Amino acid sequence: MTTTVPRPVAAPTPGPLQRTTPTFVGMPKFPKAAKEALANTQQRRNLAHATGVIRAKRAKVVSELPQWEDLRLAGSAAKDELMTHLAAYLEQLEVNLTRNGAQVHWARDAEEACRIVVELVKAKGADEVVKVKSMATQEIELNEALEAAGINAWETDLAELIVQLGHDRPSHILVPAIHRNRSEIREIFRREMHLVGRPAPEDLTDEPRRLAEAARLHLREKFLRAKVAVSGANFAIADTGTLVVVESEGNGRMCLTLPETLISVVGIEKVLPTWQDLGTFMQLLPRSSTGERMNPYTSMWTGVHPGDGPQEVHVVLIDNGRSHVLADPLGRQALRCIRCSACLNVCPVYERAGGHAYGSVYPGPIGAVLNPQLRGTASEVDASLPFASSLCGACFEACPMRIDIPSLLVHLRAKVVDAKGRNTAEGRAMQVMAWMFGDHRRLEKAQRAATFGGRLLKGRTIHSIPGPFAPWTSARDVPNPPTQSFRQWWDARRSDPSTEKGAGS
Amino acid sequence: MTTSSAPSAPSAESRRNDAARAEILSRVRGAVTDIAAPFGTRGESPRIEQTSASTEATVELFVENVIDYKARVVRVAHGGQSAAIAEALAGATSVLVPAGLDPAWTADLPDSTQVVQDDALSNDALDAVDAVITSSTVSIATTGTIVLDHGPGQGRRALSLVPDLHVCVVSADQVVHDVPEAVARLRSTVEAADGSGMPRPLTWISGPSATSDIELDRVEGVHGPRTLHVILVEP
pTM here? Predict the structure, then answer.
């Protein structure tokens, strides 16, 4: 072994933040949006049912693998290796993609990525594209950009179709229409399908099988005629140049196979260092995501395959705030995320508030740590997201990439508070607390005052308090102060001879 | 291909792309200056997998898991393929046969079944065919997954996608126990180290197409073949 000279260590430089897309500009802060969502009983019932089902499925298939923890460690190590040498792996990926006939495009931000895709579609003379469900294209609001250029973007994943036809926003990473139940879906199909293609069958019921069949019939003509498809990628493997899309319905295979041109929009953190790493990730992702041993279909392509599938293959690599996240030594672990949505399904806050309150295409615990890092905390919603959690830790337990979401939330809370400065109600309260805890006599005095209050209340509960602390009580009761502090009890116990003797025997 | 070697002046788009590329690479380098780890020192990534008590146990597990996805599985002894295929295709009026498929496999098909060869069929022509027969390249027991590499006997990707019934022949000796072993076996296919000179695409199939998008209620059969019929050939 030769000894290598370590590189000099310097403070990292963050790249630019992601600009908030028009859909989410001016979103209210999380507590306000969550309160509105909580009033929607139907949505809450749909969510409780759906997350309950998927939690049980996941738990069952994860328990089948005795080495689950080793897989999590291997997966997070592979992503950490990627982050450490991201530039080198991106260059390697580019070489392998171009060697196999794919064209690689680089996009610094959402606007640049959208412009690249719109120009590629226009160059093919197409006025429509079929789309595979992709978080990256939602993040950059590609559909809106395509529509502005007069290009129809047809979402082909069933849940995305429901969202698109319902003029709605996705509320879950994996099941974007998780907030809709079967009868709502039937109504949307009957009302909207005939406006954009083959109408829903006359006798459509709300049976899931019939609804899925309606989607099959509606989308078939679009798959067969489309000249251009747009996808994302779950993985892009650096040492082979292979792109991987994991799906269930076959809409992905249709889009990735039938059109002449394929454009894949891929976040720079989606790279896997080596082909062998795929063996780890293909065990972690399906079980964490849909709670299956394996998802029905996975497509892998390595550039252009002569005589098979699209003969023009483009890959658009996007930064869009990721290099900003990468510069935070603690925060960068959020880039390990493989968008499985396991953290959403186990989160008590998500289950009740739903996905829309997070003000981004990335909802739930991962959204609460990703959005404020990608977009910064200047907006109301982004500054409120690190607080949209009870820090129960279920998300960390469920995360196949071992992203320590609770620690990141605390880290981001500190950043938000630091940015606000000390001259806030909370800041002043903390200064008073520091002064009080700084001297035991002050603390004892304060405790005597509190226990006096506790004796006055006699077990009644304070539901809300006025003044600067009112927001704190909007979602909680005030815990009653005890009638005796520990120090008072200790002093009383020491001066009482009977307890002194009892302790010795 | 990139235009870096072209002697003529680069286009505005290629200048933009070069600038974006340089900037992104510089950003991601600048973002990790706190980590002093030289590139290329990571050893081989670990291969974490379950092992099998016996080949028989592996095959049994594979069958169990495929059935769990609501696919049909028929087990035949070597030589029994053609009869099993004919039975699987009962009711289909037309069937796609990819180039390179063992001709003996279609020997028992009745005259009423139209055999369609793929001579660059259009998407609409594919859509008019009822069924497809393919072989496969490797299968995984722990997950009930069948992998096609779209070589001879498997056809281009669209063939096993558009028709509504997919009859897939799996040889018992192609069944590996766990995912990492399959990934290791497939490496040569994507790297084109198998002498073909070109990497091949892969399709991993675990049961018929399905969705759980409506109330997380699983429905088998959406856009891909709604019926997957596996014929497992044992020695």
Answer: 0.92
